[in-house]
Amino acid sequence: MNRKFCILNLITLSLCVIFTFLQFTTFVDLSFFAFWLSLIFTGFLIFFGFYKLQIKKDSSIYKILRKMYEYIPFVFLAVFVLRRAGTFGTSFAYDLISVILWIAVSVVSFVTVQIYLSEKRFFKKNPEFKEAKNKEVSTAKKVVIEVFDWIDAFVQAVFTIILLNIFIFQLYEIPSESMVSEFLVGDRVLVFKTLSGPKFPMTQVGLSEMKNYERGDVVVFKNPHYPANRQRELQSFTSQLVFMLTLTGVNLNVDENGNPIADPLVKRICGVEGEQLVMLDGILYHRTPNNPEFTPVTQDEKWAEWNLNELPADLKAKIHDIPISQNVYNSLLKAE
User: Fold this and answer.
1) Is the Cβ–Cβ distance between 174 and 266 less than 8 Å?
2) Per-residue buried b or exposed e for 214-241, using 16+ beta carbons within 10 Å of the residue's own CB
């Protein structure tokens, strides 16, 4: 067999073993199952990748091994989240080591698949193996293979999107009229996360924040009314996974009445660090230590719509709910 492939294969399997034993815990809760899931998956990798292919020289299983290698990042990401889903958390150092191992095994397995386990390269780089001739396959078997190929492509696409959502970008839907007229209910906004310091699920390990936010920026953040704990993060991660696996048919991120939870929030920054803000007669004022007098935030007039009744008719027709009538709005101004 190709010497470089053998070395790369052994490195991948070794990293999988180290990652697996790093997930071991004696706590009997959800985190307990992370180790066993990883151990079973790694056991199959060793059986096919080392015993069957390198020891027994059985080239007929290389397609199985390639498919398992493709799933290494996704399975270990699920294991990573499951290990942190229990009652007791993990330290930053522990999380950092796990993340480094996950990245390393993901990169090595990807390189192995693309260079040594692809259908075009495997037999060229391992000339001692002879490619089996294509046999006649029944129509029923072809249908089964085609269905499994579609399921495989779909599942890989879902996990790939989850990784993109964690670190690069994510699509959010506007649930209320709080951002009128910039956004209406049902509008979808694409949020880029990389500059905002995204973190691995349920940890503080991730990229550093590289953006300084200014007044007028539209931002997405977790709703502070909901608890910021591992259980809440697990619920969000699970609901996102189920939401995509069911083609947006099932949303677990709902309240006791079945309504979508307002989390995260999409808002615009109206105040910056060091300012004091006050609202009066529908006008936002601010002051700073260098300017003790309250002055209007002139930019806010471009974005804020305090009275939806005064919007143009064509825009009002697209608004689902106007909670305050013109008379009530006038009364509020008088009370202020």
Assistant:
1) yes
2) eeeeeeeeeeeeeeeebebbbbbbebbb
**Domain tally for the chain?**
3
If phi > 0 it is left, if psi is from -120 to 50 it is alpha, else beta; for residue 168 that is alpha
Each residue's pLDDT tens digit, 186-195? 888 888 998 8
Q: What string of DSSP letters covers 249-290?
A: -----B-TTSPBP--SEEEE----TT-EEEEETTEEEEEETT
**Are residues 30 and 51 located together in one domain of the fold?**
yes
Phi then psi for residue 97, to 5 deg, are: -65, -45
Residue 209 burial (CB count, 10 A) = 11
Q: Domain span at residue 300?
A: 276-335
* DSSP conformation letters of 228-255: -SHHHHHHHHHHHHHHHHTTT-----B-
User: Could you tell me if 172 and 266 are in contact, meaning their C-beta atoms sit under 8 angstroms apart?
Assistant: yes
Q: Is residue 156 part of a domain?
A: no
Say what the pTM is: 0.84
CA distance 128 to 1: 7
In this predicted structure, the answer to whether residue 135 has a pLDDT above a threshold of 70 is: no
| Residue where a domain stops, chosen among 210, 245, 268 | 268
Q: 298 Cβ partners below 8 Å, 6+ apart?
A: none
